[in-house]
Amino acid sequence: MMNDSTATILAFVCGLGLILAYALRLAWLLWRERATTGPPGTSIDEPALPRFSQPTPSATDSITTEVKPRGKIKAS
Amino acid sequence: MEHWRRSAVVAYWGLTLLVLVLGAVLVVRAPIEPSMGPIQKLIYLHLPVAASTFLAALIVCVASVGYLGGRRKVWDDLAHAAATVTVLNGTVLLVTGVFWAKVAWGVWWTWSPRLTFSLILWMLYAVYLVLRVRIAPPRRRAMITSIYGVVAFLDVPLLYLSVKLLPDVHPTESGLNPEMHAPLWAGFAGITLVSIGLIVARFALARLRSLGWDEEPRRAAPAFVAGGTSPVSSSIDPRAR
Fold first, then answer.
1. Is B96 in contact with A34 (Cβ distance < 8 A)?
2. What is the pLDDT of residues B38-75, one digit of tens each?
3. How far is Cα B142 from Cα B77, in angstroms, rounded to an integer?
């Protein structure tokens, strides 16, 4: 049988422990999120990216480097 | 700006910790109520947590109304953050309540109106969080949970009125002598500061993740480069601002 003092201490420990556990988990998630998805250039995991991406070289190549032969090619 | 933000966060949590330590000292030094014994000291945690649960539920309701009025994701994020803290505080409320019930009434649980409405409140907001996980499309999720958040708040006045209108074994008055007021107010201040701090922190986490619709143009890959549709269509929606 649990006495009054034990019940009181257990209730305080459980209640405040739950809040503390959630607060610590939240602090950890915030720290991790700031480390990975912070402002451009501040991330430790990914390099800074331009805000508006330019067309990739391959896309440009497919438009501008296509050469069409002029005139007729004579078969020899 | 970043420096000021960090300083404000440190100052806020420093003050919160100070108030909590002061509250703990006052609770230890508070006189033991003769008829109930040491378990009466649980009121210094149980009552503030109940008030913070109602406060967080009210924030969910207000933020949900805000979302329904303007369709801005910031309201949805705030409602989500407050709902999380409502469930947390509701859990602490129920846990401290069952210890109280065991010592005061000899049973862990009894289906009195106040206890039943408290359990329903906890379940309502737990379901709110489950809904957020289960509904994938962000706009649809925000709309459904906003309506749900407003309806769920109706349990709070029911919980309050149940004590006034229905017979209940749960005490309706604290019956504290003047020496017990200081630890109770310190408990209110400490738990309220913690709850507001946790809501703000959870809200900040949601804004950092920013996986919703109004961040799509900023974070998504440029679809026009890959040959898809223009991302401009989602950025000109005035309701998403």
1. no
2. 888 999 999 999 999 999 999 999 999 999 999 899 99
3. 9
